[in-house]
Amino acid sequence: MRTSEEIYHRVRWDGRFDPARFVMGVAQRGREAKRVPLPRFTPGGEVPWHRVLFFEADGELVWDRSSGTDRIDATEAGRVRVPRRLPSPYFVSRTPHAYAADRSAWVPVDEEARTPEPRSGPLTVLTWNTLWDRYDSELIHTARRRPLLLDALRDADADVIALQEAEPALLGLLLAAPWVRAEYTVWADPAGRDTGEYGLLLLSRVPVAEAGLHALGPHKAVAAVVVTGPDGPLTVAVTHLSSDHSADGAGRRDAELADLATGLAAVEGDLALLGDFNDGGSTPQDRLGMADAWSLAHGADDRTPTFDPSVNALAAVSSLTGRVSRLDRVLLRAEGLRPASAVLLGRVPAPDGLYVSDHFGVRVELAAGELPAMDETDAADEARAAGVVRRVAAALPGASVHLTGSRRMGCALPGADVDLVAVLPGTVDPAATVRKLLAGALPDATGLREVAGARVPGLRFALDGLGVDLVTVAAGTVPPAGAVGRRDELGAAAAVALSAVSDAEAVAGAADPHRAAFVRLAREVKGWARARGLDSAPFGGLPGLAWAVLAARTARESGQSAPLPLLRHFFATWATWDWAEPVGDGLQASPGTPGPLTVLTPTAPVRSCTAQVSPAGRELIAGELLRAWEILESAADAGPVPRALLRTPPSPYADHAAWALVSVRHGADEGRFRGRVLALLAALAQAGAPDARAWPRPCGSDATHVQYALGLGRTPPGPARLAEIGAELLRGLPDATLHHVPTGQEPELR
Length: 750
Prior knowledge:
This protein is about 30% helix and about 20% strand.
């Protein structure tokens, strides 16, 4: 006969059993055994194993200490009857409850009643952080706000309601509300401890086939239900990540996102993750490989806040910084769903000025229809980029303006910069001339500045919500329209600038007849490279052109293939490549000795576009390619691309014994710093840190400065030597600093 501990863990971790259908009998002195649902039992807690007297499943005794009964393997009681979509052991089962009017009580939903039913029409989901009463209770007027919240939730008419910072008192109000009792199922036992422990609450008025909970840490969890959506089964999950009020809030969020990325990757089918992510950037959706429903509905440049201390007095009470942020999101991983609408709730206060919560709610209507691939440029993005090209061309009469880069190749990620080359007639100073013309013709262009230190004059600015990199070339006596074909007549620098046009055409053409497969593959690879910090040439990574060259060669050599096998083939090819051999397309090699990692441009003047990669950078890239290949080796060919695992940003603690931060002023100084990063890494290598690494995206900012993170490798220089390097390499950048990061305050990589 096995021990009670063995039986418990067998039920808890064996995917064939449903823990929610088991009850444990616990001995009590002088009284009958206490019946405890197995999911609510805490191993190693106050109850020792010898006090566990029996286990029942579906009302059947399957293990009993006194009689020696042990028949858990000889009965179907407690067994999972249909395949689960919430994988065990990541999710611990919960039993949905519905209100039984004839018993005046909330009772478990019979398993047969949980069977999903086909449905037509959209499914509406709602997430809202309701502001619990634990802090500043005298300032947030909970007693007056709760009736406003219940009215707002009823009027929202949502199929699934996901709440955060829900407390037992709020749960009690909802359970007593007639509209909740008449229509909604509660995801778990209302008498349980989940709401009080984690503050999460799910209500659904469509049948709940499964429910589950996974603890992310103290007082943090993800709860989930499986319902029927417009395109079949849909998992709707809710979470609330750590805020900056917590000690090391950023570090805790990083760990929670890593946990979610691993666990949710195993959830089959369509998934919607709702909640308060306590991060105003793009980190949550990028880390999890999901799409933001608000951005899909309103455009990538829409930054409508869900937490606004400038207008909401309740938000002002709880805010540490006063910063306006988008903290609340509906994230999607779905093949057959799209957001038909996305709106905010609670933006209008009551007549006395009181808001429902310090957060606004987010209500999203999900309809059947293909959701654009996460990295697929949508029509609105393409139209916006095309409009930018037209406006710039119109502002430069007589010039020939060419689109280059990933947008010319058709593999741009949403929101990607618009890369342009403008060829001007004559021999005038092109950058100064273009800047004056653009300033007059495009008054809404922001941040217009000349790019310092570039071999070819250029400008940087933002227009219509997109960044624009514009390189300018003087055509001299060559007609601007023919300058690309006659670029060798205009000098070496101009020839390189104009070859960007022919390079883009050649890369896309090299994948024929599998160009569609190339575009899809290139987007996947570029999204992965961005998440792993490998995509920025000024920081020692590979530019987009290099990744596109590798993707085009893979697509051409492997032939038309399904997305996952093609991506696996890409990583298998380049993870095992001998980088002593340059990667080209049969053209002559560029002059000189190949560098540590060499990818050649496809058109003349042929050159390496990866000369910035150091030996340590090559080892880093090779290791990242191998990591991705290993992840994909275990993925089924017919399944979705496991973006959540591929695109998890590196841990700042993994490969570096110490970290440093560079702080530099916004604007031109930031651009000048980016031009010095390779020199800074070279100086760190000379100081004994050859494996130092610069992260290519800011890890923080304030009103005047932006911060970049530097991993200092396994043998970092000391603070004094680091200060010397900073004084030398940041000379001429007012207010710029380079300093060690104290242990425990490592930056959050984005």
